[in-house]
């Protein structure tokens, strides 16, 4: 007897709801019952759709990564791409996403085995995009160095912004940094 076919649309809808829940409530105490109650589904339904709590967390992180990557779009050059990323990540409506991102990052560094997939992608996804945005004529070593500086600088600025809320000061620093990038 075959099981019920997977409803991919419902699964995606449920995953988005779980991601939104996690953004709002954090993931440290993520457990089946509160998530199920908040989403109006049974714990059995969540287990059926996600398997284990660890698998659900991996899917949450994957969807969060998809949301961030999808927001960037096609490349328009390094400075324009980095500006688009900065505008998105520094948008106050996205604060919850990035507080979650940094919370997971901290946990991943303490438990790398549990968060191996996250750690595999947290730099490389963006690194590849930033290298490509510099154009095919850019020396690969220079492109990697520049991409590394961009990632580190934007993450540092974002941490500062999330910690202090000093939007004017941090945005001024971001603008100064953006001006150093090739157009």
From TrEMBL:
Single Gene Ontology MF annotation: DNA-binding transcription factor activity
Keywords annotated in UniProt: DNA-binding
DNA-binding region: 31-50
InterPro entries in alphabetical order: Homeodomain-like_sf (IPR009057), HTH-type_TetR-like_transc_reg (IPR050109), HTH_TetR (IPR001647), Tet_transcr_reg_TetR-rel_C_sf (IPR036271)
Keyword Transcription: no
Domain HTH tetR-type: start-end pairs: 8-68
UniProt keyword annotation of DNA-binding present: yes
Protein name (Swiss-Prot/TrEMBL): TetR family transcriptional regulator
Taxon lineage: Bacteria, Bacillati, Actinomycetota, Actinomycetes, Kitasatosporales
